[in-house]
Amino acid sequence: MSSTDTCILSSHTEAKSTRAGFDPLAGAFPKAERVALRRALSLLEIDKKRFTLSVLFGSGAVGSGVGLGAVSAWLIARAAQLPPVLDLSVAATSVRVFGIGKALFRYLQRISSHWVALRGMAAVRTPCTHASLTLPPMWFLRCGGAICSPALAQTWMSSATWW
Question: For burial by CB atoms within 10 Å, which of 3, 11, 14, 54 has the most?
């Protein structure tokens, strides 16, 4: 392939990527899967603020981990040279701060991401549960428990609502 062909291909790719309506997932997934993925994500009703907060907390944890590794490596290398202890005190304190920051950011990231995930699952589960409540309990038994667990079917069978 000549340099002219490469230049034409790269300019074609750049023009395609800047075009309005360009789908970055077009090469990764078939169209049917992209549509299904977008529909599933819209059903989850993801809170964008909490999701962004989760990403920021995760980034803070990664940054603290990198800082912890860098400062602790410098501290070990510098301590091998036997400098006065006061020269190392700021680095030692920084290692503590980065260690606590990493744990704190990771905890906050998990709390916020679980909040997003559990709220999203509740948004999906609630309409499904309400729709299944309109079905008679015998329907679940005929399906062999593929729809819901046998414990749930027994709960509905013993419910006074159906008698």
Answer: 54
pLDDT for 19: 54
| Rounded distance between C-alpha atoms, residue 123 and residue 118, angstroms | 9
Q: With a cut of 50, which residues of the chain have pLDDT below it?
A: 1-17, 154, 158-163
> What are the CA-CA distances from residue 73 to residues 80, 98, 143, 146 (Å)?
11, 13, 61, 55
Q: For the segment 37-65, what is each residue's pLDDT rounded down to a tens digit?
A: 888 888 888 999 999 999 999 999 999 99
| 154, amino acid identity | Q
Within 13 Å and on the Cβ side, how many CA atoms surround 100? 5
Helices and strands, counts by H and E, the chain: 6, 0
Half-sphere exposure (CA, 13 Å, Cβ side) for 22?
10
82-86 contacts at long range (C-beta below 8 A, 24 or more positions apart): none
Classify residue 98 as exposed, middle or buried by CB count within 10 Å of its CB (0-12, 13-18, 19+): buried
- CA distance linking residue 151 with residue 51, whole number of Å: 34
pLDDT recorded at residue 102: 98
Quick one: pLDDT at residue 12? 43
Displacement of CA 74 from its chain's centroid (Å):
33
CA-nearest of 100, 76, 70 to 88 is 76
